[in-house]
């Protein structure tokens, strides 16, 4: 028991978690999203892209069992810890953090439900509409939404082709977004 909690296995699991989370973050920070596809390069815009990539990771592991299920939960926990840390870095105090975390969690799960539904139905228009509604709520029309929807659908397919064993070992490969 102590070996598992405090020994090498715990450190190996932490290394896997950190490696996967870093890969998810790197995918969400692809420059093309902000420079070419007009995603706002703001804390909320970055939250949207990180949420989207976390959704894609979770979507890939859905239906898996054992270590993959545990890993999916650990990565969600890591995501929300990172979001909380970011709020604190933005100057939100101890009193305001729980309220904002509750709101951001609700936003995350609402978005994932919309994205999941559109992906399951293979409905690119619905996916583009959900992305536009969430990523660019300030814009009447967001011309790049179909590009992001195509990226999401392609990424979902590519992630589905990756073996769960590889992901559980710490490697997930997100495709690079391509210019229009």
TrEMBL record:
Task: Identify the InterPro entries for this entry.
Answer: Ubiq_cyt_c_chap (IPR021150), Ubiqinol_cyt_c_chaperone_CPB3 (IPR007129), Ubq_cyt-c_CBP3-rel (IPR014569)
Pfam families tied to this protein: Ubiq_cyt_C_chap (PF03981)
**Ranges of residues in domain Ubiquinol-cytochrome c chaperone:** 36-174
**Protein name per the record:** Ubiquinol-cytochrome c chaperone domain-containing protein
The cross-references to PANTHER family, in alphabetical order and at most eight, read: UBIQUINOL-CYTOCHROME C REDUCTASE COMPLEX ASSEMBLY FACTOR 1 FAMILY MEMBER, UBIQUINOL-CYTOCHROME-C REDUCTASE COMPLEX ASSEMBLY FACTOR 1
What organism, scientifically named, is this protein from? Answer: Mesorhizobium amorphae CCNWGS0123
Report the sequence similarity comment from the record.
Belongs to the UPF0174 family. Belongs to the CBP3 family.
């Amino acid at each position: 028991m102590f070996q598992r909690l405090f020994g090498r296995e715990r450190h190996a699991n932490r290394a896997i978690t950190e490696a996967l989370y870093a890969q998810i973050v790197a995918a969400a920070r692809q420059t093309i999203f902000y420079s070419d596809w007009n995603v706002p390069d703001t804390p909320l815009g970055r939250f949207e892209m990180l949420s989207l990539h976390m959704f894609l990771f979770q979507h890939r592991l859905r239906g898996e069992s054992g270590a993959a299920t545990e890993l999916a939960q650990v990565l969600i926990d890591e995501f929300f810890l990172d979001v909380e840390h970011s709020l604190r870095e933005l100057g939100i105090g101890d009193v305001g953090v729980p309220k904002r975390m509750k709101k951001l969690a609700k936003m995350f799960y609402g978005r994932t439900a919309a994205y999941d539904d559109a992906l399951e139905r293979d409905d690119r228009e619905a996916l583009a509409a959900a992305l536009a509604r969430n990523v660019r709520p300030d814009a009447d029309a967001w011309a790049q939404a179909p590009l992001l929807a195509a990226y999401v659908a392609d990424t979902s397919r590519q992630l589905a082709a990756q073996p769960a064993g590889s992901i559980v070992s710490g490697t997930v490969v997100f495709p690079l977004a391509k210019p229009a």
